[in-house]
From TrEMBL:
This is Thiolase family protein. Pfam families: Thiolase_C, Thiolase_N. Keywords: Acyltransferase, Transferase. InterPro entries: Thiolase, Thiolase-like, Thiolase_C, Thiolase_CS, Thiolase_N. Residues 258-380 form the Thiolase C-terminal domain. It comes from Alicyclobacillus dauci. NCBIfam families: AcCoA-C-Actrans.
Amino acid sequence: MNDRQPVIVDAVRLPIGRRRGVYADTRAEYLLTAVLKGIVDRTGIDPSQVEDVVVGCVTQNQEQGNNIARIATLMAGFPVEVSAVTLNRKCGSSQQAVNQAAQAIIAGDADVVLAAGIEHMTRHPLGTDRVPEPPELTEEYEIIPQGVSAERIADKWNLSRSDLDEFSYRSHQLAARARSNGEFSREILPIQVEKDGASILVNEDEGIRPNTTVERLGELKPAFIDNGKITAGNSSQISDGASAVLVMSRKKASDLGLKPRARILARGVIGADPTLMLTGPIPLTKLILEKAGLSVRDIHVFECNEAFAAVTLAWMKELQPDIQKVNPRGGAIALGHPTGASGARIMTTLLHELEDMDKELGLQVMCCGGGMATATIIQRV
């Protein structure tokens, strides 16, 4: 038995809020603080045992600037000795936080790391931290919006508008069924917030549309280019949310009397063509499976982030997984995509899916802005 094996002890997330929705009046720091406190309360761990808090966040300005990880760690009542860092690997930021926590444990630098993610896209719209790219970059690479990249992917993999809309409908239906059946209840941390002067309890994801249809989705206009296929309906939702995953060495979990729920089996990152930008999950899935000595057939549940329906469908065309194993509770098209929080949110959902289905191996993969991808394989223990 490897004492330094990184294991997941718990994983939680807030309900995902729609843009200008339930969290519109709540600062980002409070959302992140809630999940940090929540995971401590759920596990009963003494916060002084946590050696580092690693938080993914994409738009690091204003309330999300100033190393929001450190601010929220102090607000959550952790001892001042518990350090914290905020990182940005675009959409894969909090998945990177989980992977970085595992790396610290394997290296012997820490035994307990709390990985988390935050993104309040209502109060800090995506892109508000950007400045014009230097000419040395733009002369070499065509810098385009992600939606245009998704259009190119749809064309390259011969995906029709109906393909995209049907997949998006599937996402909403699966998420609605999971919500109705209470399948998100164990992973969601309810939160009390103020909205329009009233106190409200948020305990469900806000973006799921159970009554949408393929026909309604088909009526939406292209969002990025004239006569295009990519619409608001077959793209991920702009959202607000926070998530957290508690990672430990196997020995430390045993010493603290905590039962590991999964081990982190493999991790990986890759760069991809920045003019297609969102294709990284394809080569990275092949790479991480090879690293782990596994095949597509060995994986019981896949979570491929639905940044756009085109991204997941192209990935499926190349990898040929059983579609029943892919995003079985819907994805970002229905649930939302609070970018910095999505990596740990998806890991949280994947862990609970494996447990509820009594399955063993799960693979999570995400495309990232700028032409990158992150991936993780976990195994229930």
